[in-house]
Design a protein that fits this description.
By secondary structure, the chain is mainly alpha-helical. The protein has helices at about 5-15, 20-25, 30-40, 45-60, 70-90, 105-130, 145, 155-170, and strands at about 135, 155.
Length: about 180
Amino acid sequence: MKKFNSIDEMFEDIKKNHTLWDKIILHPSMNWLRWLIYNAIDVPNDFYRKCKRGWQRAYRGWCDEDVWGFDWYLSKVIVEGLKRLKVTKHGIPIIDGFNGEDDFKAMQKEWERILDSMIWTFEVTQKIQNSDWCLMPINGWTENQLKLQSSFHLMTAEETRQYLVGWANFQKYYFGLWD
């Protein structure tokens, strides 16, 4: 085995010993060719799976692969749906404490706040599922749990309260999620 005095020397040696094929296939403009060589055998199977998943989602709203992580799939769908509902809403449900048409503007503002709390909650749910955040236990953090803080975000008591309010709003206004 050849010994090198530096990394640069090693890379120079590698470049010097490239064949014509290496020079062609490693050129940045040949990404498509590398992809074709290494992935062409999987293309028919991948195409079939994508078509099957698409058909299943169109026909029944979910596919077999979504069930592998159904909570993750639903969180994604709910966040996107709530954001779309907030943009396109044409009406709002009756909210407790308001007098119909007299307080319509205030009720609209409150509905937007409620939608924002639900959106925030499901965005946090996605972060929890991706292991970026950790949901605070009801009785608070222990010393050992606080030591883990460097690897992900430990939710504060206020964030946990806000998270639970968002879930409560989602449950309370579930039948009001219409456009």
